[in-house]
Specification:
Blueprint lengths: L1 E6 L2 E6 L5 H12 L6 E10 L4 E9 L4 E6 L2 E6 L10 H8 L7 E4 L6 H10 L3 E6 L2 H13 L6 E5 L2 H4 L8 E6 L9 H6 L1 E13 L4 H14 L4 E13 L2 E10 L2
Parallel strand pairs: 2-3, 7-8, 7-10, 8-9, 10-11
Antiparallel strand pairs: 1-2, 3-4, 5-6, 11-13, 12-13
């Protein structure tokens, strides 16, 4: 059995352990029948680390790991091994982009190669977007993607840890903050609240099983109190699975003070 993602010119396939090499090549050949796919890679290691990188092995087609992928009318270029990118979040990114408003000040944390930032810029026409990402190579592609999509007058890419970058932005208070954070124990809510004002809307992504969703929400409410802030979680929507019985949740938050 094989699961795969298509990232423009590249298909990345995850095979079960018992799959024979001949079967892998057969599946790769089948995928190359799609005219848009030029390269087929096998995913050999799952997403790992704070930078959410993967390992792949070449199977068939052109030998490249550079994807050129179109989504929601935007073009993205990136290395599939060194830059995290999930095509399965395409609808999610568009839904979030529609939450922003024209003329707003927006912060995107853990921004990767800037898919949330660019789709937001093209969809909502905000005044400005600060796009913060830890990975140097992701930032290099983010800057290239910003130019490709002609939104360099809106988006500023900043490379570094959000714990180091966000304090430098404390003079700014954002209207809308997006946190497509990795699946880590730390919430980084402190950093988001540090640049929030009364009425700031935050889109936060959390990871847990369904039976732990209420506990996750309660922990965030309590964490905000530690920083003498009050928040209201308006909605908690399932936004995809990360493992059997483990879900990604989109929490829509408003800052009350």
């Amino acid at each position: 059995m094989a699961n795969y993602d298509i990232l423009g010119n590249i298909a990345i396939v995850k095979f079960s352990k018992e799959t024979k090499k001949s079967e892998k090549l057969e599946k790769a050949s089948e995928l190359l029948g799609n005219k848009s796919i030029k390269t087929v890679l096998e995913k050999t290691e799952k997403v790992s680390g704070r930078l959410r990188t993967i390992k792949t092995k070449y199977l068939l087609g052109e030998k490249t790991k550079i994807a050129e992928y179109r989504e929601n009318g935007c073009l993205f270029k990136f290395n599939v091994e060194t830059c995290y990118f999930s095509p399965r979040l395409a609808n999610e990114r568009l839904e979030v982009a529609k939450m922003a408003k024209k003329g707003e000040s927006v912060l995107v944390m853990f921004a990767g190669v800037a898919p949330f930032s660019i789709i937001l810029a093209k969809t909502a026409k905000p005044k400005k977007i600060i796009s913060v990402e830890l990975g140097r190579e992701c930032c290099r592609y983010a800057e290239e993607n910003v130019i490709k999509n002609k939104v360099e007058n809106i988006i500023r890419v900043m490379q570094g840890d959000v714990k180091r970058i966000i304090p430098k932005l404390k003079k700014e208070k954002f209207d809308f903050i997006v946190m497509p954070r990795p699946n880590l124990k730390e919430s980084f809510l402190e950093q988001a609240l540090g640049v929030s004002k009364k009425g700031t809307r935050i889109v936060y992504y959390g990871f847990c099983s369904e039976d732990k969703k209420d506990a996750m929400i309660e922990e965030l409410l309590e964490e905000a109190k530690k920083f003498k802030r009050k928040i209201n979680i308006i909605r908690a929507l399932e936004a995809g699975d990360i493992a059997p019985y483990e879900h990604r949740y989109r929490l829509e938050i408003i800052v009350l003070n």
